DNA sequence: TTGAAAGCGTTACCAT
DNA sequence: ATGGTAACGCTTTCAA
């Protein structure tokens, strides 16, 4: 059967208190007994039961990660980088796919709370904030990542989406484009990107292509294709399209090519995220890069520092996007 | 503070035993008290502590998933499908990236054992099987997925890799190719695919392009590029390449195009996995499809049935790959 | 139908 | 330096 501290204690002729102390390097134990106990633990292949110690108030060393969709490269790369840092810091991740579905979000939150995770990293939509609010009032550590809630005080590491949109628009406008379409889902971050985008347009006395509207298909590639077709078939076809993520951009490029357009000659397109698929796309996609690795590290570090109460003030880390030039945009002639 | 069964019991004027019973729908409780207790639980917003109940021998409802790399589309899609099924069955997933590194694998195993996960789903390499063997002898449920261990009796849901290789070779040979290159990492599943591949070649008195050798870069796209360059520059250039995953194939296509070859006119390429990136590749990739959704469901179902001891005999589910024709292969002329 | 009490495997305080 | 023991929050007999 499972070996417990009792077994170790008996075998080593000490009390369980002593065993517990050598386990945690706490209290004062003579070098001699420490050696002996450790020895016995090896022999018996003793594995401490974390459930019991967590029940006594210690950490579970487990973080809940709520993410919209692991099959989306941006999120899987983000999850990967968070897990990497977690591993270094000895935390495990319970990863949950929410599909931006509020009911799923809430269900996961409540279930993981019952499992007493040490904290939550939220990368999901959470258009309804009440449950998140609840976590906070219960003093459960929460960090938001890749999703901003400017209206409400919570720890977060986010991208400066406004700047992202700004950069994209600036690049396109600098290339001489005057009729630009945008493709985006109706998410907070995208509204920010649009704000940045509009800012540049306004500076240049330009306006968005009037066919713009938010898309809502879950399959991003398909969404990109459909919206691209709509833009291309309209009687006032844009010369450039800014897609709010790389998958959308991939769809745009696909459809544009199928409709006989040359990228970037007939249509410039810039994506967002800089996931690993950008180099697969033909032509390689010019995109606004999110520093995914960094983001993962920052969010995990922030989480852990909150858990350890190293900082009581809420803090917010904002990372900057950057423009990565490849081959999908071109100066207008 | 945290509300426990004691609080609920007190408030409802019953014993904690009664509360526990209504919680688990066990024992016989009068409808009246059941109602009352449930009512109080609502009011107090009582959340049962799973740590405590797991400590008493109940399940943790958590499964450890060891996977090589979440940033690889095949694995993230697989993880996604496993998690989906887990969610339906009320299990959470702790996801760990192993990078095919045996030390990491073992470390995760031991840590998750301490957390008393109900079982392990292993999608990682595990070239050293001792720790897996150990799990089995400790009667901890284990299922292997997307990775076969024919030599050793363990529950598994795997792809018929031999058939996968067979299908790829058959397709290429049917198109008239006689000089075919292969690109693969040295993994068990790839050795099987090669076996199936060779089988077809032998049937047709053909032999593999002699420049073949296993690759081992971790960056698959890069690996595909490098190996493709090698094949293309050799003085006996293959007319077709079988890449053992889609990423590798993407690299091949990229490099081939950079070197001025037309796909599929000058070089046919078939991939493996049928991940979502295939439709982004130009031209769309002909590939051997793994039924990823199915695989995720099967593995989770198998896991749960083992946990619930619905089957004591080891079982092994083998799924069949299929050829998906797209535009990257062409009849030789 | 309900409740008392004995665990589950730890930690931590207080003695010794 | 070491050990006894009361928690932690729950489940599960066994009595009542």
Automatic annotation (TrEMBL), chains A, B:
SUPFAM superfamilies: lambda repressor-like DNA-binding domains, Periplasmic binding protein-like I. Pfam families: LacI, Peripla_BP_3. Keywords: DNA-binding, Transcription, Transcription regulation. It comes from the Bacteria. InterPro entries: HTH_LacI, LacI/GalR-like_sensor, Lambda_DNA-bd_dom_sf, Peripla_BP_I. SMART domains: HTH_LACI. Residues 3-57 form the HTH lacI-type domain. PANTHER family: HTH-TYPE TRANSCRIPTIONAL REGULATOR DEGA (PTHR30146:SF147), LACI-RELATED TRANSCRIPTIONAL REPRESSOR (PTHR30146). This is LacI family transcriptional regulator. It comes from Siminovitchia thermophila. The lineage of its organism: Bacteria, Bacillati, Bacillota, Bacilli, Bacillales.
């Amino acid at each position: 059967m499972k070996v417990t501290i009792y077994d170790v204690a008996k075998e080593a002729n000490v009390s369980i208190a002593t065993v517990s102390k050598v386990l945690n390097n706490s209290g004062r134990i003579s070098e001699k007994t420490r050696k002996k106990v450790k020895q016995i633990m090896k022999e018996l292949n003793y594995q401490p039961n974390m459930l019991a110690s967590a029940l006594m108030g210690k950490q579970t060393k487990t973080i809940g990660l709520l993410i919209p969709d692991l099959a989306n490269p941006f999120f899987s790369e983000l999850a990967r980088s968070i897990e990497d840092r977690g591993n270094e810091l000895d935390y495990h991740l319970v990863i949950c796919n929410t599909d931006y579905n509020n009911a799923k979000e809430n269900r996961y939150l409540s279930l993981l709370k019952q499992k007493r995770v040490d904290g939550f990293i939220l990368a999901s939509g959470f258009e309804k904030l009440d449950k998140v609010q609840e976590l906070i009032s219960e003093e459960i550590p929460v960090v938001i990542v890749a999703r901003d809630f400017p209206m409400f005080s919570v720890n977060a590491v986010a991208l400066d989406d406004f700047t992202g949109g700004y950069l994209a628009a600036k690049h396109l406008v600098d290339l001489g484009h005057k009729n630009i379409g945008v493709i985006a889902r109706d998410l907070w971050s995208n509204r920010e990107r649009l704000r940045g985008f509009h800012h540049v347009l306004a500076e240049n006395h330009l306006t968005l292509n009037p066919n713009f509207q938010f898309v809502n298909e879950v399959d991003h590639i398909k969404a990109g294709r459909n919206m691209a077709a709509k833009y291309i078939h309209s009687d006032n076809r844009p010369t450039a399209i800014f897609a709010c993520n790389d998958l959308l951009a991939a769809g745009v490029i696909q459809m544009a090519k199928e409709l006989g357009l040359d990228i970037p000659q007939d249509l410039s397109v810039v994506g967002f995220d800089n996931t690993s698929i950008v180099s697969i796309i033909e032509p390689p996609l010019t995109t606004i890069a999110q520093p995914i690795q960094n983001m993962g590290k920052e969010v995990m570090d922030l989480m852990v520092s909150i858990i350890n109460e190293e900082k009581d003030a809420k803090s917010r880390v904002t990372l900057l996007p950057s423009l990565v030039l490849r081959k999908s945009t071109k100066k207008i002639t």
